[in-house]
Amino acid sequence: MYSFTTPLQEGIILKRNSQFTMDVLLDDKIVKCHCPTTGRIGDIDVKNISCLVSQSNNTKRKLLYTVEAISCDELDTKEKNWIGINQILSNKLVEYFLITHQLGNMISGYENIKREVPLGNSKLDILVDNTYIEVKTPLTTIHAKYGIGIKTKPVTPFSSTERFTKHINALANSLKEHERAILLTVYQYKITCPKSHQKSTHYREVYNAMSNAIEKGVETWDMELSFTPYGVSLIRCENTSQLLK
Questions:
Q1: What pTM was estimated for this model as a whole?
Q2: β-bridge partners, 64
Q3: In degrees rounded to 5, what are phi and psi of residue 172?
Q4: SfsA N-terminal OB domain location, by residue (predicted)?
Q5: Which of 96, 100, 124, 130 lies closest to 112, judged by CA?
Q6: With respect to CATH, is domain 2-84 assigned 2.40.50.580?
């Protein structure tokens, strides 16, 4: 298990102030916390739902607390399904599972792991020997059951797909000189209710980029994780390339 340096604290989100901050009730105090994802979290109204918060020791930070995960369970649920929302954490998790050789069904027999590797005009997440791995952590659709008291709100199709198509095209082109290229989708939670992914306003462009990449040999994999206040462990890592053909 990838262990947190200090166990995360459980609180209740009172409101989301902006893309970047949330007010959280923590130990009977209202604390302004950093929100690590600037986009929406599925169709969830995050007001009055449970969350897990980390605290930084860096006193120079404007906000010492960060909301790392939320739960769509009722507030009094003892064993909550925590949904990690810190997309930057995904790269650290994948690196950890590679270092500890827990992804043998996806890649094995490697010696070198590098992070943030330039490729053309892009910078891809991880290079493992001769294999590029681009990590994505989608939060526009949450594949988890919602508790009875969880409120939802109408959503509009998202349009921020330019970076994704840029990276998937870079992955496809990398196969000219490298053995493998993998698009790894990370779900920082247990998938308890699979749902249809919401299509973006540039759906056709994304679909064409994905189809082209898979035809060239880019592999797609899904990683499902178990998120707790103490750390994150691997549930499964599966090849989904055939599902997209």
A1: 0.91
A2: none
A3: -60, -40
A4: 14-85
A5: 130
A6: yes
